[in-house]
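Cross-check.
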Amino acid sequence: MHKLRYPVLALALLTLSLGSCKKDSAATPQPTATSSTQQLTTGSWRLDQIKQGGQVTGTGSGIKDQYSLTFRTDGTYTQKLLADGTTYPGTWMLMSNNTVLHLIDNKGTSNDYAVAALTATELRYTFTNKTGAVEERTFSAQP
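Predicted model, tokenized:
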């Protein structure tokens, strides 16, 4: 029979190696629905940049039909065209652990956008547009 010379060391190594298999949920905190909702519903969001296929296709007032979005805590939002002030209502919700922004516009059309960034100053999302290209829209927070 083979005898272990350092049983305490072997037990310590086994404990360390098994313990390293656990996920550390504190290492990458996820935003809560409440904090993400609070970020979205504070002020409005102005569209400042559009990228298609990784290339900038529009910035600032050079964006055709530039608009802003104002989200409310009751699950409704307003889209405002900046050129003439026309507004359109809709509904919204965050889904999939705050990684998908689900919008239903005034015509009842439903769209899902992959949230790439949501901070106090920036909202950025991506989607596949009508031409099949990946489009990214970047919004800045407006008071």
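The radius of gyration is 23 Å. Residues 129 and 135 are 6 Å apart (CA to CA). Passed to J.P. for a second look.
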